[in-house]
Amino acid sequence: MGVEGCTKCIKYLLFAFNFIFWLAGGIILGVALWLRHDSQTTNILYLHLGEKQAPNTFYVGIYILIAVGAVMMFVGFLGCYGAIQESQCLLGTFFTCLVILFACEVAAGIWGFVNKDQIAKDVKQFYDQAFQQALMAESDTNNGKAVVKTFHETLDCCGPDNVIGATAPLWREDLCPRKDSILKTFETVNCHKKIDELFSGKLYVIGIVAIVVAVIMV
Fold first, then answer.
1. Hey, which of 24, 138, 153, 165 would disulfide with 133, CB 3.0 to 4.6 Å?
2. 209-218: per-residue pLDDT in tens?
3. 150: nearest Cα among 162, 158, 160, 139
């Protein structure tokens, strides 16, 4: 009787932990979809400068999280159902999927931390090219001015991190967001800083979520 009672206890504990695992998968999926459809990143990463598209490497980590979240929900269901039915086949499949998911989670976490600086750097280079073309009136032949204005309006910034960028709000009102006063114009943040904040913050979310869930899975 004691052995049977212990077995039932383990069965229901396994069910409870797998249900939590299923919920965690739903949370990861929700966070990943929010990052994928966030208005700031989509406005910027869907831009085209002539035939060149904005760097969208950022989406690699998000797609990994979306896949992991969906599979976690499926695997959590397998674990719950397998525990209730006491099916060794389902539990074996659950364990195999768990190992694969663990590897993907670690990969996504490492990718997020390693690439956080490079992704922001690539986006800043894309912005700088558009800004130079807008200043040199090359926007007559391409959409450089439109690209720059999208960056400025989306991130509420103006100019790169240099002298030209610092003075741009004063002499390029056609490119920079209009401010109510001269003081606020001087307080305008350069776009390099805003790009760093945008992508570094979101990549930290990807990395932290991935590593935390991987630790829980262990």
1. 138
2. 767 776 766 6
3. 158
Query: Based on the domain organization, do 103 and 200 belong to the same domain?
Result: yes
Tokens of 50: 């002539």
Q: What is the pTM of this model?
A: 0.70
pLDDT tens for 14-51 read 778 878 878 888 888 888 888 888 887 888 888 877 77
Structural domain that includes position 59: 1-86
Residues 118 and 81 placed together within one structural domain of the fold: no
Return the residue matching tokens 């776009």.
Answer: 191
The contacts of residue 125 (CB under 8 Å, 6+ apart) are none
Beta bridge pairs of residue 49: 52
Pair 143, 199 in one domain: yes
Residue 190, φ and ψ in degrees, nearest 5: -70, 155
